[in-house]
Amino acid sequence: MKTMTAVLPNNPLEGRDPDKNAWTKTFTGKTFYYCYVTADVFDIIDIGHSLSRLCRWIGHVDCEHYSVAEHSLIMSDYVLSHATEDRYQLALAALLHDAAETYTADIPRPYKMLFPDLKDYERFLTKAIFKVFGLPWEYYAVIKEYDKRIMANESHLVTGAAHEFRHVVPLEGQELHLFSPNTAEQMYLQAFQALVTSWNSQENTRQQAELSTES
Fold this sequence. Notes:
Blueprint: E1 23-25, E2 31-33, H1 44-53, H2 68-82, H3 87-96, H4 101-104, H5 109-113, H6 116-132, H7 138-154, H8 161-164, H9 181-214
Antiparallel strand pairs: 1-2
Helix pairs in contact: 1-9, 2-3, 2-9, 3-9
């Protein structure tokens, strides 16, 4: 994973806050400047903590809590079980696909459509997060297809939503557990560590095989 302190380029909000008044503090105590984002501000501890406490469907769910972290875990588990190539990397991309919401909250997709800046900024953050964690941006398009399908799995939690998603094919075999925030956070961070470890092990094995072939 890369660590940089320089301000990331291509920020859609660049120049809008010359006095750096637009900021928030994260769980680990980092300061996140919306118009001056640096790569070193992205921390998996912050991401796991925040996403586990953000409720999907902006809270309009018929249950105590259904977190963005659990949503991401379900997608990651599905990808890990079904991907045939780069499964650990793709599963990690699924786990991190909503990580930008750590800093923006979970804004409903129909609302974002009305404000292009919001969508552009979320894309900017997601791209930056993927780069920090070593993931190719091309994975995002693959993950978004699963993101559309999981809406069908979740729709029964929201009154009237199931009808809206009746033509969407759900992610088969995926169950919603409705974890508490603390449990979701713990499982999210465990999944992250397991995927990174498996990915590194896979890369080491691949490199050793290449060296054996060359010798």
